[in-house]
């Protein structure tokens, strides 16, 4: 493998293990993932925006999957109609392909030359289809998405309480753990085939997930484990045996674009950046990341908690219900709190730094009102 060279890869493959907990490579039997991490650049906890997916309202009309998926493909937090996605940027490079075993990602598959979303496929079937396409076509960009681990994580939240893995993804006999370990085996099958066919040295491979996983299962918005997942880069020009302290999923599309010599899909105020620290030619600490997504996720949790407390206070004093309405309707502040139910309005902030500032102002007002309520009750 020509890792560390300045050569541009001929193809990029993003291998997604749905709902991969950030501790899975250490907790479970994932020898392929861990070997690749040592051979490339590894991020223990890549941060993504809360994995919320409303089925009503404008977002529900635009997208069939949770926030992190269009954010990943568009490379920005400011989702808008007509935005380009990463697959659109490879039109001049060769064929693009998306292979998965669910219909959940229909709205982020637009623009792929080859689009296979077949729920009847097993995870092994997804990898076999992907290998077949790599044999038949000159693929410049491929997204492979194994859905079973995420499904199993969700199922065990409401399985029989007498089972050792009930609301415990690490429990004995956990089907989630088994599905993740199977995904690692299938990752090895893909890598072995790339090596056997002489494609490995010219392949940029990224392994990650679309969202994290609560240790109880699935991805509740209030659980920080839902918003972080491991990520690795391996291939031409990628640094070997390097760990980066922080990465955001908004950075993935612009980083892939930069590594592959194509334009980033979007460059608005919510867009991520090309993280050059994955390159062997760059130092690991080249740039200190502003950690926008980590901050926003914490603000979202604080807002939801404070709003709930204000609603409880409103049971005794209706003013607090009015106060929430004032904030929602921008009667007390020039902007609303940019929470998950207003996700498609986030672009109004202009840039991510200002969005955080606007949110912080409202959080401070909410805390102040609650402190008055506590004082008045004494």
Q: Give the low-confidence spans.
A: none
**What is the CATH first-level class name of the largest domain?**
Alpha Beta
CATH architecture of the largest domain: 3-Layer(aba) Sandwich
Largest sheet: 9 strands, mixed
Strand segment tally: 9
Structure description:
- The protein has 378 residues and is α/β, with parallel strands linked by helices.
- It has 2 domains: 11-278, Alkaline Phosphatase, subunit A (3-Layer(aba) Sandwich); 292-377, no CATH class.
- The protein is 37% helix and 13% strand.
- The protein is built from 11 helices and 9 strands.
- It has helices at 24-27, 31-39, 57-62, 68-74, 123-136, 148-155, 175-196, 252-260, 292-314, 319-328, 352-377, and strands at residues 11-17, 41-47, 95-100, 114-117, 139-146, 203-208, 228-234, 242-244, 247-248.
- The model has no long low-confidence stretch (mean pLDDT 95).
Put the structure in a nutshell.
The protein has 11 helices and 9 strands. It is of the alpha/beta class and about 375 residues long. The radius of gyration is 22 Å and the shape is globular.
Write a concise keyword list for the protein shown above.
single chain; 378 residues; alpha/beta; Alkaline Phosphatase, subunit A; 2 domains; 9-stranded mixed β-sheet; globular
Topology overview:
Blueprint: E1 11-17, H1 24-27, H2 31-39, E2 41-47, H3 57-62, H4 68-74, E3 95-100, E4 114-117, H5 123-136, E5 139-146, H6 148-155, H7 175-196, E6 203-208, E7 228-234, E8 242-244, E9 247-248, H8 252-260, H9 292-314, H10 319-328, H11 352-377
Parallel strand pairs: 1-5, 1-6, 2-8, 2-9, 3-4, 3-5
Antiparallel strand pairs: 2-7, 6-7
Helix pairs in contact: 5-7, 6-7, 9-10, 9-11
């Amino acid at each position: 493998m020509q890792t560390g060279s300045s050569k541009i890869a001929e193809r990029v493959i993003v291998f997604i293990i749905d709902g991969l907990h950030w501790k899975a490579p250490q907790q479970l039997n994932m020898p392929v993932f861990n070997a690749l991490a040592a051979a490339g650049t590894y991020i223990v906890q890549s941060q993504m925006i809360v994995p919320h997916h409303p089925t009503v309202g404008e977002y529900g009309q635009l997208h069939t999957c949770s926030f992190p998926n269009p954010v990943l493909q568009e490379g920005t937090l400011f989702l808008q109609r007509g935005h380009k996605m990463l697959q659109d940027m490879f039109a001049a490079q060769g064929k693009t392909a998306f292979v998965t075993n669910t219909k959940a990602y229909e709205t982020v598959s637009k623009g792929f030359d080859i689009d296979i979303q077949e729920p009847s496929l097993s995870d092994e079937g997804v990898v076999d289809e992907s290998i077949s396409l790599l044999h038949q076509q000159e693929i410049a960009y491929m997204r492979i998405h194994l859905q079973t681990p995420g499904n199993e994580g969700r199922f065990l939240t409401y399985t029989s309480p007498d089972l050792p893995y009930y609301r415990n993804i690490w429990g004995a006999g956990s089907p989630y753990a088994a599905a993740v370990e199977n995904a690692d085996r299938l990752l090895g099958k893909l890598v072995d085939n790339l090596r056997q066919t002489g494609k490995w040295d010219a392949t940029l491979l990224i392994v990650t997930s679309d969202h994290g996983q609560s240790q109880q299962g699935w991805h509740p918005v209030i659980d920080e484990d839902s918003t972080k997942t491991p990520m690795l880069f391996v291939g031409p020009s990628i640094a070997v045996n390097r760990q980066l302290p922080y990465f955001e999923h908004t950075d993935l599309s612009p980083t892939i674009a930069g590594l592959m010599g194509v334009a980033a899909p979007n460059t608005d105020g919510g867009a991520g950046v090309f993280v050059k620290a994955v390159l062997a030619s760059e130092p690991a600490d080249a740039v200190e990341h502003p950690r926008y997504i980590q901050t926003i996720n914490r603000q979202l949790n604080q807002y939801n908690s404070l709003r709930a407390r204000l609603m409880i206070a409103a049971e005794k004093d209706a003013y607090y219900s009015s106060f929430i309405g004032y904030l929602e309707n921008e009667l007390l502040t020039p902007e609303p709190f940019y929470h998950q139910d207003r996700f498609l309005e986030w672009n109004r902030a202009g840039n991510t730094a200002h969005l955080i500032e606007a949110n912080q102002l409202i959080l401070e007002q909410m805390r102040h009102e609650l402190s008055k309520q506590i004082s008045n009750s004494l």
